[in-house]
């Protein structure tokens, strides 16, 4: 890899570190290619990505970025899992680490907040952006449906009373 390629890689990594809601650093030593492809597929499905980069270049790219605290985790065979959604990458990484003992989460960063392995697990258990939006929409929509039900209820009650009265007169 020549100097221009290294500079381009550092720029790409810098953009990743700036744009990502969460970055998870893990060791992947001993994983097969098929296992790594499975991890990439799961991460892509959740809206995240997986990147293997030289630790030295990643540390250079981290300089001055909000998640610079993860530089200490960049030793050995490391992989970066990241996503714009602050929960997606952490959730997939945590789930994958439970299923594969060769994938070991070292830590990560959420914005400028450093995360240890327990912090990554805590982030993974948080609801995703879509789940939060759905719960907010349901909270907003519930009063409206209750009002519509309350407005419609008296009319249905009157109709049932009238039906009952008609039945009594017919009998």
TrEMBL record:
Gene name of the encoded protein: rplJ
GO molecular function: large ribosomal subunit rRNA binding; structural constituent of ribosome
Pfam families linked to this entry: Ribosomal_L10 (PF00466)
Protein family (similarity comment): Belongs to the universal ribosomal protein uL10 family.
Organism in which the protein naturally occurs: Paracoccus litorisediminis
GO biological process: translation
InterPro entries: Ribosomal_uL10, Ribosomal_uL10-like_sf, Ribosomal_uL10_bac, Ribosomal_uL10_bac_type, Ribosomal_uL10_CS_bac
Record's keyword annotation contains RNA-binding: yes
PANTHER family per the UniProt record, alphabetical: 39S RIBOSOMAL PROTEIN L10, MITOCHONDRIAL
Keywords, sorted A to Z: Ribonucleoprotein, Ribosomal protein, RNA-binding, rRNA-binding
Physiological role: Forms part of the ribosomal stalk, playing a central role in the interaction of the ribosome with GTP-bound translation factors.
Subunit field text: Part of the ribosomal stalk of the 50S ribosomal subunit. The N-terminus interacts with L11 and the large rRNA to form the base of the stalk. The C-terminus forms an elongated spine to which L12 dimers bind in a sequential fashion forming a multimeric L10(L12)X complex.
UniProt superkingdom: Bacteria
Annotated Gene Ontology cellular component terms: large ribosomal subunit
Name by which UniProt lists this protein: Large ribosomal subunit protein uL10
């Amino acid at each position: 890899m020549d100097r221009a390629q290294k500079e381009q890689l550092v720029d790409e990594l810098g953009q990743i570190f700036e744009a990502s809601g969460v970055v998870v650093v893990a060791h992947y030593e001993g994983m097969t290619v098929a296992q790594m492809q499975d991890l990439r597929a799961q991460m892509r499905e959740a809206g995240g990505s997986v990147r293997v980069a030289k630790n030295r270049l990643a540390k250079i790219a981290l300089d001055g970025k909000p998640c610079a605290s993860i530089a200490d985790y960049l030793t050995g065979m490391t992989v970066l899992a990241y996503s714009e959604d602050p929960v997606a990458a952490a959730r997939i990484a945590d789930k994958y680490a439970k299923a594969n003992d060769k994938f070991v989460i070292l830590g990560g960063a959420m914005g400028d907040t450093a995360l240890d392995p327990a912090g990554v697990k805590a982030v993974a258990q948080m609801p995703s952006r879509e789940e939060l939006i759905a719960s907010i929409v349901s909270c907003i929509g519930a009063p409206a449906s209750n009002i519509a039900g309350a407005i419609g209820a008296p009319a249905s009650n009157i109709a049932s009373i009238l039906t009952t009265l008609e039945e009594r007169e017919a009998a």
